[in-house]
Specification:
Chains A, D: Belongs to the MoaD family. The complex is a heterotetramer, with two copies of chain A and two copies of chain B. Chain A is of the alpha+beta class. Chain A is built from two helices and five strands. In chain B, helix 2 runs antiparallel to helix 3. The chains are: A alpha+beta, B alpha+beta.
Chain lengths: 81, 139, 139, 81
């Protein structure tokens, strides 16, 4: 399945855009699978202090399942305020 | 819970924020106003750019306000955050909290800004004369 | 030490107070605004009257601000206090503190209002529907 | 000597006015002497939670000397803010 991933902050710079698509092998991928795939394609992601995956506007656990219908975003360390 | 959360591209309105949190049941209001400082660790800052994941940012701020209302007896709480380009002296964030007693207002206001900086998906890029950097991205 | 202390018989100007403490060296401002609450321990309040020993009040507030500047790295600190008759929702006091970092602003602002209420010669009389009382006069 | 005393808050109500004069026997009176004299004349003063004497806009110790030239004030418990 193909997942569309939103990127913000430095993740947007690393991906070279606000939106990228990631091909994940089967229909039961997790956020951990997504991270492995992204880090292989964008090694700079691993150099961040940390980053989170958000699914449908909520921070997701590493084991959380992703479907093609979910809004998936990469959340690098925040710095608002 | 009486709360107001807004994310704006235009300058924030201090007077409107304060007017919104005032209430006849309140004895005190604590307000935190963030302002763009002219330097970071001694290095002159030219401007800042703020970017937000708007819908999720509102959700996360709402969670923080819920926690604050659970922990302290508050009347009203407001968070306005700005995005886009801000120059020195401009205002990225206003937090205002009213309560019957001032201790609750002070503690909740500080809790809200401290937690916002840890959990809310908003990012700040600092522009110096010789380069730019996303704050907090690297160790 | 950049400070401003004023005691007014006219309504306090929030916008002017905030504008005065803002500075390009500051990353944050904490503001406390006291407001007249509609009840004290459940009893409806009709109005308050504030009386000050003006010259001594300014002296004592100045001492508090000096202590605050010694304890925290502040940019500017302001105290405006009102005297005379105030109705519900009106503003007896505004305290505003700017600093490079928000912790100092929050802590100093709270210190100033807490200490002001203990040492500064200003008195408040509460008017209820059935009588009036000088606050804190009796045990 | 005769001392003029300023009164504020509930002390003003107890004295029946903002300004009263107090006759203290000699020229080396202290704030403690003033308190004794005032409490004899206005017993209600003793019912306050506490009260202070200010001399020339500063809180005074009980042993502090007062002269006719000083600005003396009675400071009942404060309640500003």
């Amino acid at each position: 399945m193909e997942i569309t991933v939103l990127a913000f902050g430095i993740a947007k710079d690393i991906f070279g855009g606000q939106l990228i698509t990631v091909e994940l092998g089967d229909s039961t991928a997790t956020t951990a699978d997504l991270k492995v795939s992204l880090e292989a394609r964008y090694p700079k992601l691993k150099q961040l202090a940390s980053y989170m995956v958000a699914v449908n506007n909520e921070y997701a656990e590493d084991g959380g399942v992703i479907t093609e219908l979910d809004e998936v975003a990469i959340i690098p360390p925040v710095s608002g305020g | 819970m009486q709360s107001q959360i807004e994310i704006h591209t235009e300058p924030l309105n201090i007077q409107a924020c304060i007017a919104w949190v005032m209430s006849p049941e309140s004895g005190g209001i604590d307000i935190f106003i963030g302002t763009v400082r002219n330097a970071t660790k001694g290095k002159p800052v030219v401007k800042l750019e703020f970017e937000a994941y708007n819908q999720m940012a509102v959700n996360e701020i709402n969670k923080i306000l819920k926690q604050a209302f659970e922990r302290w007896p508050l009347q009203k709480a407001l968070v306005h955050h700005r995005t886009g380009t801000l120059h020195v002296g401009e205002i990225p964030v206003i937090i205002a909290v009213s309560a019957a007693h001032r201790d609750a207002a002070f503690e909740a206001c500080r809790y809200i800004i401290d937690t916002l900086k840890q959990t809310v998906p908003i990012w700040k890029k600092e522009f110096f004369e010789d380069g730019e950097v996303w704050v907090a991205a690297h160790p």
